[in-house]
Each structure stands twice: as C-alpha cells, then as structure tokens.
Amino acid sequence: MNREEKNDLVVALADQMKEFGNFYITDTSDLSVEKINKIRRKCFENDITIKVAKNSLIRKAMETVGGDFDEVYGVLKGSSSIMFSKSGTAPAKLIKELRRQGDKPLLKAAYIDSSVFIGDDQLATLVALKSKEQLIGEIIGLLQSPAKNVISALQSGGNIIAGLVKTLQEREG
Fold first, then answer.
1. Domain that holds residue 51
2. For the residues of 110-159, what is the DSSP string, one character each?
C-alpha cells in the first residue's frame, strides 16, 4: 500500500467516524477466511460496516477526527478490525451472537457518543445500553404519565368540581 492509498484510507476511516459517531475496535486475528467472510456477511445484514486496517492508520484517523481517544490508543495492538454503526448497541449484539460459535471477535474498545468502553468485559454493558431515542422515549412517557392522571381525574370529576364551584358561589351570594 503506497502513501496515497494510506492517506485515502485514513480519510475514509475519519469520515466514517464522524458520520456514524459509534465504532468498535475488535480483534479478529487467527480467524479463517471462512469465518471472516461470515462476520462480514452478518455485519452487512445488521447494517454494520467493518474494515480491517493497520493500527497506525486507525490512530491517524482518530487524530484527524479529534476528540478524546487517549484510552483507545492503548488498545491499538495486534490485529484490529473496526466496526461502524448508527446504533451504538448493534455491533455489541452481533459480537455476542458471533461469540456463541467461537471465542472471537474480541472487543478491544468501543466509542459511543463520546463515551469510551475498554476491554472485552464491557460487552455485556454495551449490549444492555439504551439508545438516545429509547431514553428520550422513556422520559417522555414518564413526563406524560402524571399529566394524563391529572387530566383523567379532572375529566372524571368534572361534574363534581363544577357542582362544588356552583355551591360555593351560591353561598357567597
């Protein structure tokens, strides 16, 4: 790979980091071509982009993007694959599914909405992570619940309240 091709790859990786906002760095070393192709197929089915790149090029892409990647730099050793997804949990769920059939891919690090997760022991946490949309939906549901209760009580007791107001007005008059 010549210098121009390396620069193109760094630019492409940096663009994907910016576009997706989420990426996972995994270890897929020592896997057969058949298993790598199966992982690529599963990634495609789950709307995940996967790339194999040298650690130095991944690091240069992160430096191009800017941000706090200091913790991630430490895991850039050995063979690395990088997964990009709009969903912060999709790659974690896929890795968990693939691990049922073997011990790889291993999670080295994940970067999700400016949060860094280091190590394979974080996989369970990442699988359970809720997306921004899910959290917003839950908050809206929680905020609507008390308002619905008040409106419901007012509607069901509307006749009683009107009667009380009328009675109080008559007493004053």
1. 3-129
2. EEETTEEEESGGGHHHHHHPPPHHHHHHHHHHHHHHHHHHHHHHHHHTHH
Q: Are 115 and 52 found together in one domain?
A: yes
Q: Please count the structural domains in the chain.
A: 2
Two tokens at 104?
Answer: 């790889």
pLDDT digit string (tens) for 32-56?
Answer: 888 888 999 999 999 999 998 899 9
- Residue found under tokens 């896997």: 31
What residues pair up with 84 in beta bridges, in sequence order?
Answer: 23, 49
Helix ranges, the chain (H): 3-20, 33-45, 55-65, 70-73, 90-99, 123-128, 132-156, 158-172
Neighbours of 7 (CB within 10 A): 12
pTM of the predicted protein model: 0.74
Confidence bin at 79 (pLDDT 50/70/90)? confident
One domain for residues 147 and 66: no
Let me know whether 112 and 148 are in one domain. no
CATH code, domain with 87:
3.30.70.1730
Kindly state whether residues 86 and 33 are assigned to the same domain: yes
Nearest Cα residue to 104 out of 114, 94, 116 = 94
Q: What are 19's two structure tokens?
A: 């576009």
